[in-house]
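To the wet lab folks,

You asked to see what we're planning to order before we commit. Fair enough. Below is the target structure as tokens, and below that is the sequence we designed to fit it. If anything looks off to you, flag it before the synthesis order goes out.
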């Protein structure tokens, strides 16, 4: 049996280009979320999720359940996370120019919000290995750099855990102008912290 359906892609807020799928057909409407991160009120602003002044009737939701676990009972908002990281990075990098931060990011994408906001607030570009993965995201290019002489790093290495044995960053930096670096690592990961909380 064949049926025409309408498929609408809605922004998922997870990483650049991530979407949720809204399927509408004669037998009803289904929303498939996949990984998503929407702040309170964001769904209310999605015009394509509405019919007139109300949300469309959705018969089924296929919800990503990565964090459907009691240990993730409270996931702080993106703003709360940013403010906490910003406060830590500001206090550390203001000590001396040899105090640097390594953002230990698990994935290649999805941290653009963090990089842009840290760079804008602190006036420090974020070191990444390559710029080519950001070529189609011009809004971030001003905030990232391949110059290793910066105080915020999000460079990656295949064996990240081995980096700090010699007090060096994944890019190999250990000092600037002969002065040893003082490095802290920040792991921006809901999963990592959720698995370690009591």
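Sequence we intend to order:
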């Amino acid at each position: 049996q064949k049926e025409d359906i309408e498929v609408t892609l809605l922004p998922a807020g997870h990483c650049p280009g991530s979407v949720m799928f809204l399927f509408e057909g004669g037998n009803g409407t289904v929303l498939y979320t996949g990984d998503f991160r929407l702040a309170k009120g964001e769904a209310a602003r999605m015009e394509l999720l509405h019919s007139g002044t109300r949300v469309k009737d959705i018969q089924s939701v296929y919800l990503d359940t990565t964090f459907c676990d009691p240990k993730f009972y409270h996931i702080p908002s993106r703003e709360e996370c940013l403010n906490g990281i910003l406060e830590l990075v500001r206090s550390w990098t203001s000590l001396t120019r040899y105090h640097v931060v390594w953002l230990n990011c698990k994935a290649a994408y999805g941290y653009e919000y963090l990089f842009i906001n840290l760079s804008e607030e602190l006036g420090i570009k974020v070191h990444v290995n390559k710029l080519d993965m950001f070529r189609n995201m011009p809004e971030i290019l001003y905030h990232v750099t391949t110059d290793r002489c910066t105080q915020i790093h999000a460079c990656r290495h295949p064996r990240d855990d081995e980096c700090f044995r010699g007090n060096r960053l994944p890019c190999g930096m250990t000092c600037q102008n002969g002065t040893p670096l003082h490095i802290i690592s920040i792991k921006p990961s809901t999963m990592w912290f959720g698995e370690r909380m009591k």
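Structural context that might help your review: The mean pLDDT is 85. Residues 127 and 148 are 6 Å apart (CA to CA).

Thanks,
Computational group
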